[in-house]
Here is the input.
Amino acid sequence: MSARPVQMSDIELRGNAITDATLEVTRDMKRLAAETREIGAATAENLHHQGEQLDNIENNLDAINADLHKAEKHITNMEKCCGILFVSVCWSVRYGRNEEPQ
Here is the structure.
């Protein structure tokens, strides 16, 4: 009969070792899950910040595009005005100041 309590003790020791190992693995998994949650939250925050930056860039590009469109209109108007002056000056140089072309 004395062999049986030794066997139970060995089984209990192995069971306790397995339980301890399982608890350690569970603790590691919980720690990794918490770290993953923190990393995910930081990533989401960074993505939100980058999205805001992209929105600002888009707004700035829209403003630049509007400014370029205005500048293009001004240049077109200047070309119309200066083009007439340029033709007039070239005409004067080519044909003389007060002379009309023949």
